Request: fold
Amino acid sequence: MGKTSLVKQFVHNRFDDKYLTTIGVKISQKTLPPVQHPTSSRVVQYTFLIWDIAGMEKFDTIVMNYYRGASGALAVADLTRQETIPQLQNICDKFRLVSPDARILILGNKQDIFQQNHETITLLKKIVSNFSAEYLLTSAKTGEGVEEAFLELARKIR
Reply:
């Protein structure tokens, strides 16, 4: 789905074609340069502590502990594999169960190779509406929309 690739692109500005499923948890951190807050005149600096739990969805009890206390989540679907979109419902339901006040931003990844498909976008919008969330389209490969996704989540959390 590209979760690890999105994190790698955001934190290290790198993309790797080799696919390795994340087992366990990979924790990354990135601090962005100070920016003016979009709705006020104050300057803010965002520091992200990112828990990549990709490949862990099978281990519900462990995953639930990682979700607990989170301020927000990026839930990622692969636009080129429509079957990954309905999986977001289950993932977001479980996330909200332990972190009900956290913000969720849903990402449709692989925009760079996605053949615009009305059915796929409609399905993505349906999942988004179930969680009163928003969605963005990203490409871990080209970097398109990646930093914007993390910044948008940060703005929602503040």
